[in-house]
Design brief:
323 residues, alpha/beta, six-stranded mixed beta sheet, five-stranded mixed beta sheet, 45% helix, globular
């Protein structure tokens, strides 16, 4: 049943993205008039968002005659559906969206990873909730964005507490809708990531049951459409370089970064500053340890029926072609 629900979820998301692509006039990735443009999918928070705010990628690519088009998404699953249908070329997500996307045969490749940030996602409850630990979630309504990075955190936390995923009532909601449901106490708990996690901490009465320490590394991943990476390896290299520069700037100037990012995403400075201050940021190549981490997620999701088939993460890791 869960496999059917998962496939139905991605099918609906696919139709939404296809409709959006048609209405905004997006062209297929291999179109002749697409050669001078790169379309980057980003979310409200992360190194890509900082890179956009800094404007340095545009300067690097201008000399090559390449324009940068930025497209914002509410979460990773929606972003990867856009990549799947050719509406974007590059994107950043958490650890679980690529697992669902690969299982749905999306033509993607990993080309870089962020450093671990387990403190940047958590399971929270209202401050006055009688829920004191993960075991108390049995039978409770838990809000999460299906297929997002927090999906694996929830699964791991439940299993470590001796529960199964079927022991809870998952409510699949995007962050904005989940926040409303949580604030109105229509759900008992919320599994969420920064900056939404920080926003809830600073503006709602919340209590954190656990963050991701001991459960998952909570890395960000940088992905490209397979055909785009094969044809534009030099551009991928420039993006990785600028991501590293942005991460370094992020860590050296947290206060400036918080102000810059708060303005760009339209969020109050206080939660953005909290989210930035609690984690270090960096960019790493995809190594065997990272592949193993992702493979563990894939194997877990297959075991509990959240993906329909076995996948091998190593099959979709981009290998730069040396001339």
């Amino acid at each position: 049943m869960r496999i059917k629900q998962t496939l139905r979820f991605f099918s609906i998301a696919l139709l939404i993205v296809l409709f959006t692509s048609l209405t905004i006039g997006c062209q297929p990735a291999d179109s002749d008039d697409r050669q001078n443009e790169i379309r980057i999918g980003y979310q409200k928070f992360g190194i890509l968002s900082i890179l956009k705010a800094r404007g340095t990628l545009e300067k690097r690519l201008k000399s090559r005659g390449i324009k940068v088009k930025w497209i914002q998404f509410p979460a990773g699953p929606q972003l990867l559906e856009a990549l799947n249908v050719g509406s974007i070329d590059i994107g950043e997500t958490g650890n679980t969206p690529p697992i669902f996307a690969q299982a749905a045969n999306a033509p993607l490749v990993y080309f870089a990873a962020g450093t671990p940030r387990p403190e940047a996602e958590a399971i929270i409850v209202p401050k006055d909730s009688p829920i004191r630990g993960i075991r108390d979630l049995k039978g409770k309504k838990v809000a999460l964005n299906k297929g997002s990075n927090v999906h694996y955190l929830l699964v791991r936390a439940l299993e470590k507490a001796g529960l199964t995923y079927s022991d809870i009532q998952p409510f699949y909601l995007a962050p904005a809708d989940a926040r409303t449901a949580f604030a109105e106490k229509n759900v008992d708990a919320w599994v969420i990531w920064d900056p939404y996690y920080a926003d809830a901490e600073t503006s709602l009465q919340t209590r954190t049951l656990t963050d991701a320490h001991g459960y998952t590394s909570n890395r960000s991943y940088y992905l490209a459409a397979k055909n785009y990476a094969a044809q534009h390896g030099d551009v991928i290299g420039i993006i990785v370089d600028e991501l590293k520069n942005s991460a370094d700037s992020f860590n050296r100037n947290p206060d400036q970064t918080a102000r810059l990012l708060a303005k760009q995403i339209g969020m109050d400075l206080k939660p953005v500053n909290l989210a930035i201050q609690r984690a270090e940021y960096g960019i790493e190549p995809i190594n065997q340890s990272i592949i193993d981490d992702q493979q563990q997620i894939a194997n877990t999701f297959l075991r509990i029926g959240l993906i329909p088939k076995s996948i091998q993460v190593r099959d979709v890791v981009w290998r730069e072609q040396k001339s």
